[in-house]
Write a structure and sequence with these properties.
two-stranded antiparallel ribbon; 8 strands; 34% helix; binds cobalamin
Amino acid sequence: MHYETIAAALAPHGLLARGGFVPQVEDGLPEDSTCAVMVGNAGPAKWQAFAQARRDEPDAMNRWTRRVLDPLASELGAQVVYPFDGPPWFPFQRWAQRAEPVFPSPIGMLIHPEHGLWHAYRGVLVFRESLEGLPERSDVASPCESCADKPCLRTCPVDAFGPEGYDVPACADHLRRAEGADCLELGCRARRACPVGRDMTYLPEQAEFHMQAFLGSR
Ligand code: B12
């Protein structure tokens, strides 16, 4: 199987092959696997595919993801593992850092040099056979290293991102109040303050969907 075949199968669904890694025993993936390919999204492309295919159901994005990736994995001869199956959660952010140049940002999410903070993961395809054409992880620095200003740490209206990590209750309480409408409807203000990958910013309806899902999960 060639990596480009996997990327081509994902593309009609607005999804990207986002590099791969060689599973180790501690990753908790099937023992006979030799290669894992991260599946994710960046910018509005996945939203556009999802909006056309979505059903009126609870947990709509995750269910759509299963409807897309379960059959695609069988066609490709792979198994699929999802970021939303848990707890315990599979360590998607750790895997992502092995697969491609993404780095922890000051607000916890991983930053990508081109997609900025406007990207996420929808699954990992796990292969028994070895793959051809797997891209090597490129060796670039985190864009946060050269960002002196760090507007992401100064924009949250309730200072949810601090040295102690992410204050989830403070963020969620704010989103439930009238003053939180901006974060709820357009997406996290700290995320929007980041200068990297501005052209990849989620669409307002996409951002609101994710913020509502976050509130609904609590
Ligand atoms: C539990 C969880 C949450 C919890 C707790 C987050 C926290 N305080 O860590 C809650 C519900 C609050 C949450 C919220 C959000 N989350 Co969340 N979440 C997860 C989940 C399911 C498990 C994380 C975990 O504990 N893993 C277990 C450990 C062992 O794995 P790990 O990879 O080594 O852990 C890393 C994280 O804990 C991370 N981390 C530490 N502090 C923070 C803070 C934040 C805000 C985030 C996002 C991550 C993070 O650092 C660790 C080392 O790399 C992951 C999916 C997954 N399976 O990884 C998504 C995930 C981390 N979330 C994600 C996102 C996008 C969000 C939201 C921004 C969603 C939104 N609204 O758009 C919000 C944040 C709210 C906001 N202000 O916008 C993305 C991050 C993508 C990226 N670019 O890095 C993930 C990977 C899901 C995905 N499908 O891609 N999330």
